[in-house]
Amino acid sequence: MSPDLPYKIVPGHLAEAGACIEGRLELSKMPRLVELLSDNRGMVELKLAFSRSEDGITCINGGYRTDLLLICQRCLEPFAVKLAHTIKVGVVFEGTTLKKIPASMEPLVLKQETMQLTDFIEDEILLGLPISPMHRLEDCAAGTQAAERDPVGSGPFHILKKLKSG
């Protein structure tokens, strides 16, 4: 984590001040994300701007970018993925209505005024990951083996088509 990044933040106070947070976080400090990675070395670059909307909603706008080494779900080998996502969040507290949040923002429901910056960024990265990370078919060892083994038209329904026409 960059020495200038806070561990805990109070989004409401940062919004009142019109603050901007910019820096780098270590991937190794994100345990839920680390479970999905082949290698936990690396950093996440982030930039977040805090503001208050006309309706009084605390807004967090910005984004992150990182390079991850994920495990291909087809061949189980590591492969590199570049992630870069925009963050547009409206902060509300538990028990308040979400109707005030503009449609262009995602709601972030907090139980208390403070939140951990690393946990917030980890959640955003997890939401940005592919559901089933895989190499491109032509780059994947298992994909090329499957293509060689099963030529087009040899699937289970191909046999049914032969039976119907014959």
Secondary structure blueprint with pairings:
Blueprint: E1 8-9, H1 11-17, E2 20-26, H2 31-34, E3 37-39, E4 43-52, E5 58-71, E6 78-93, E7 106-110, E8 115-116, H3 117-128, H4 141-149, H5 156-165
What does this structure look like?
The chain is α+β, with helices and mostly antiparallel strands. The chain is 25% helix and 36% strand. Strands 2, 3, 4, 5, 6 and 7 form a 6-stranded mixed sheet that branches. Strands 1-8 form a two-stranded antiparallel sheet. Strand 5 (58-71) and strand 6 (78-93) form a beta hairpin. The radius of gyration is 22 Å and the shape is elongated. The relative contact order is 0.16. The mean pLDDT is 86.
Keywords:
single chain; two-stranded antiparallel sheet; alpha+beta; six-stranded mixed β-sheet; elongated; 166 residues
Mean pLDDT metric: 86
Count of alpha and pi helical runs? 5
In this structure, how is the largest beta sheet organized? 6 strands, mixed
How far apart, in Å, are the first and last alpha carbons? 67 Å
Strand count? 8
Give a brief description.
The chain has 166 residues and is an alpha+beta fold. It has 5 helices and 8 strands; from the N terminus they run βαβαββββββααα.
